[in-house]
Specification:
With 406 residues, the protein is an alpha+beta fold. The protein is 49% helix and 9% strand. The chain has 18 helices and 10 strands. A hairpin with a 2-residue loop joins β6 and β7. The protein is globular and about 70 Å long. The N and C termini lie far apart (69 Å).
Length: 406
């Protein structure tokens, strides 16, 4: 008989704790020293999982859907509805939570809807939204770049791509944030579903040139619930990760002399900073959940059936067996996933983040942190790598639009 390893509560690392959020890379190193490539963790109290922290092992898992399927329905039957992470991990009719023909059906529609986005036009959308956001604080000399800039920028750009009104978009924003935080994820999920129901119904009645309309009209013939679930995925993947990528990149630029001293001089580019963040502090640190249907032997460890196996993107990217420390032009990281479930929106996400950073630095090139970097707080949560705030100061400037008329 197969006996997967058993761990006590003290053996499992709580990915949801403030302590983990404060020092994740130290925790990953300790996991690697103690457990090797697979570490026992908790996603929330009483919810065990296995965290893959070895790069090569992660690639094997991501390319092996037969042994590591993504359907969580058997697992979630034993998880209480008030579990903070259940809405985030539960089965949905979308590409992330399905395999085989259903996965292809959902993914093909999403790829088609996203591929039709005009990337040149998306540059203009980011600029159109970024300029007035910067204008709201550029004369004050200080800002929180998350609340005042990165978060509203990401939401408004995704709203524009999906053809969503500001009123519905605000409700979506609140729902997504609540869902990721896990404090009242069920309420956040309900708020999100209700808002997206209105969006989908509106596009059936009044189509536009946007991602939502293309999903509604796709030959796959999605019903309303299926359209809503594709939109849930797009918002969850397009907002929280993108605004975290923007702020984590700005933090690197503001605190690392290689960027702070050279970025505007041309030696290092915003793309270099983005690539380094996607390696070192990817905005979604732990994700790509799978659920083996039976015990699976992986790296000489028997993994239990129907228990989540999660890829630590951050730990794998920094695996000393593959990480040489040179990130310039290196895009072998796992921040976009890999295999059949790799992110189909990476081009758009990368463009939004790069343009968002550039717009801010063009407007306020002398921007500085207003506190020491070791005083910054990171939001607890098992999935994201997200600052709570990013307070900065700068010399007050005229409104950006007055000297950047486009």
């Amino acid at each position: 008989m197969i006996h997967p390893p058993t761990y006590s509560d003290s053996d499992r690392i709580a990915l949801y704790s403030p302590e983990f959020a404060a020092l994740p890379h130290e925790c990953y190193r300790e996991m690697r020293e103690r457990y090797g490539s697979l570490a026992p963790v908790e996603l929330s109290p009483g919810v065990p999982a296995t965290l893959v922290i070895d790069y090569r092992t992660a690639v094997r898992v991501l390319h092996d859907p037969a042994h590591f399927p993504v359907d969580p329905r058997t697992w979630q039957n034993d998880i209480p509805d008030d579990c903070p992470v259940k809405p985030m991990l539960a089965w949905r009719p979308n590409a992330i939570r399905n395999s085989g023909e259903e996965h292809r059906r959902y993914r093909d529609a999403n790829v088609a809807a996203l591929s039709a986005v005009d990337l040149h036009g998306l540059h203009a959308v980011v600029e159109r939204i970024a300029v007035p956001l910067i204008g709201q604080f550029c004369e004050t000399g200080s800002a929180d770049l998350i609340a005042d800039y990165a978060r509203p920028l990401a939401f408004q750009v995704v709203n524009a791509m999906l053809g969503c009104s500001p009123e519905i978009g605000q409700r979506v924003a609140t729902g997504v944030i609540t869902l990721f935080e896990g404090s009242d994820a069920a309420a956040g999920n309900m708020m999100l579903i209700e808002a997206l129901s209105e969006l989908a119904a509106g596009k059936r009645a009044d189509p536009g040139d946007d991602v939502t309309t293309r999903l509604v009209q796709h030959p796959a013939g999605f019903d309303d619930q299926e359209v809503i679930e594709q939109l849930v995925t797009l918002y969850a993947a397009g907002v929280e990760p993108v605004h975290n990528l923007i702020t984590n990149t700005l933090l690197l630029i503001l605190t690392n002399d290689r960027f702070a001293g050279n970025l505007l001089g041309g030696s290092l580019s915003t793309r270099d900073a983005l690539d380094e963040v996607l390696f070192l502090d990817p905005p979604i640190a732990n994700f790509c959940m799978t659920y083996p249907r039976q015990p699976v032997l992986l790296d000489d460890v028997w993994l239990p059936a129907h228990q989540p196996v999660i890829i630590s993107i951050a730990a794998c990217n920094n695996d000393p067996a593959v990480s040489g420390g040179d990130y310039t032009g290196n895009r072998s990281h796992l921040a976009w996933g890999a295999g059949p479930h790799a992110c189909p929106a990476r081009q758009s996400a990368y463009l939004i983040a790069q343009d968002g950073v550039d717009q801010l630095l063009d407007a306020l090139p002398e921007i500085e942190l207003s506190i020491d970097s070791d005083e910054l707080a990171w939001r607890p949560g098992p999935f994201h790598r997200a600052l709570a705030t990013l307070p900065v100061t700068f010399d007050p400037a005229r409104p950006f639009a007055s000297w950047h008329p486009s």
